[in-house]
Design brief:
Elements (H helix, E strand, L loop, with lengths): L8 E4 L2 E3 L14 E4 L2 E3 L8 E2 L2 E2 L4 E3 L4 E4 L19 E2 L2 E3 L5 E2 L18
Parallel strand pairs: 1-3, 2-4, 3-5, 4-6
Antiparallel strand pairs: 7-8, 9-10, 10-11
C-alpha cells in the first residue's frame, strides 16, 4: 500500500482544541495548509496556516461535549465563505451540523455549529 506522500490537507473554518501536553500537528507539516482556524490548548497556531485565532473558543459546555458557540465566542463571524460538496449542503445553501443556514451574520462561524442570529 502507498503512503501519505501525496496527501494534502487544507484546514479552513475549523476549531482545534488540544489537551495539555499534546501538540496540534505531527508528521509532515508541509502537507498541511489553511487559514481562518481557531487553535486553543497547545500554544500558538502552526506557522504554515494563516489568519488564525489563538484563543479559547468559548463553547457552551465542552466538558459535556456541547461544542456549540457561546454568544461571546471569538469564533463567531471569524470564518470565510466556502461551498464544499458535503452532506450539509441543502439546495445550494450551506448549513451547519444542526441544519442552521450559514452564515448567520457577516461571515461564517468557525467550527461545526453556526451561532443563530438571534443568539448573536
Amino acid at each position: 500500500m502507498g503512503g501519505a506522500e501525496g496527501l494534502a490537507l487544507r484546514l479552513r473554518n475549523n476549531i482545534v482544541l488540544q489537551l495539555p501536553g499534546e501538540i496540534y500537528l505531527d508528521g509532515n507539516k508541509g502537507q498541511i495548509t489553511g487559514e481562518h482556524n481557531l487553535w486553543f490548548g497547545a500554544g500558538n497556531a502552526p506557522s504554515q496556516t494563516g489568519e488564525n485565532i489563538s484563543a479559547d473558543p468559548d463553547f457552551v459546555n465542552a466538558a459535556a461535549f456541547n461544542f456549540h458557540l457561546s454568544a461571546k465566542s471569538p469564533a463567531k463571524d471569524a470564518g470565510v465563505k466556502i461551498q464544499p460538496a458535503n452532506p450539509f449542503s441543502v439546495s445550494g445553501a450551506m448549513t451547519d451540523k444542526d441544519g442552521v443556514v450559514r452564515p448567520q451574520g457577516k461571515e461564517f462561524d468557525l467550527g461545526a455549529y453556526e451561532l443563530p442570529l438571534q443568539s448573536k
